[in-house]
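Suppose you are handed only two things: the residues of a chain and a line of SMILES describing pyridoxal-5'-phosphate. What would the bound structure be? This form records exactly that question and the answer produced for it, so the two can be stored side by side and reused later without any lookup.

QUESTION INPUTS
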Amino acid sequence: MALNRDRFPGLCDGWARFDAPGGTQPVDAAIAATTEYLGGGAFANYGGPFPAARRTREVTDRARASVAALLGADPEGVVFGPSMTALTFRVAGAVERTLGPGDQLVVTRLDHDANVRPWELAAERSGAALRVVDPDPVTLELRPDLVAAELCDRTRWVAFCAASNVVGAVNDVRAITELAHAVGARVYVDAVHAAPHVELDLRSLGCDLVACSAYKWYGPHLGVLCGAPALLEELAIDKLRASSDAGADRWDQGTQPFELLAAAGAAADYLVETWWPQITDHEVALTRALVEGLGAVSGVRLLGAPARRTPTVFFTVDGEAPAAVAERLAAERIAVGAGSFYALGLSELLGLGAAGAVRAGAAHYTSLEEVERLVAAVTAVATR
Ligand SMILES: Cc1ncc(COP(=O)(O)O)c(C=O)c1O
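ANSWER OUTPUT
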């Protein structure tokens, strides 16, 4: 059983795709929206008094509205960019201009480097101090009390992930945000891994800025940044004199990839139309099958044991290099990756070295039969 599998043309080749944390397959509506924009007569730029220009403006506004509906954000506070990494460098660069010696930034050792290095550089260049929070050593969740221990009244921003892209730990975004706000700090949340698995409502979570990537939630390769319009306006970003100073358009660096915006909007609509409890129920079953199935294989070591998690597992097989395990699974037409997946701090904390571990991550289109196939193939590798 899998959810809406027939909506994903990329899944028809017999491969079991456990590379969802690296990028999900695009949904049919996102593919159609790209084609429609490119070939449907609306291909233009903003600003002309003719229908294609007006339609191109509508494509942007519609994409912002759809993404805002998905994330519980203000449509006026939705910015698109080439990737989460590029957007985060831009935000951290703007924050850097507000910092000086005595100020403090907080990052975590659970995060993808895209939510660490930009802040590290901002601290280095501004003279601010950088504090690093470790996840719980056993569960690998980000514990609010461990974050609280690194906060003080000079903390300006706390950068952390809503969910880990390697061990799947889902963090308590609301609790961490409240702690940061209590000392007057702002939060920058990496929701790249969480967004396809957890229903997010940024307004009620109270986050200041949240970044994610549409290609992790069934859309195109496009980054998304969301926040209060007033905060986005306050940040001193580099921009052209001639480009718009108004609202989220102020963040545009050159002409937008409108066909990707159209696709991102369609992918967001797809997720909004799919009932979240249906996704959650199926993903809980997938997670249980992955954790119990792989956990029962002799010689397999699952890393981390978070209470709340996405269907993503990170594991090693005794006596086998992670890359060799991934190769063996690929020979069975099972797609997984091996390495650190840019979660450099975590890889170091776990003593994994450059080889990292194997990551298998499902999505709601994954079937339980595919999980059984994965477990059987890993068992064969572990027992040879
Ligand atoms: C948790 C997490 N954060 C950030 C990123 C970087 O996203 P992007 O590729 O859009 O820069 C990734 C990419 O895998 C990720 O998994």
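WHAT STANDS OUT: Residues 21, 83-85, 112, 114, 161, 165, 190, 192-193, 213, 223 surround pyridoxal-5'-phosphate (CB under 6 Å). The domain at 5-18+275-382 is CATH 3.90.1150.10 (Aspartate Aminotransferase, domain 1).
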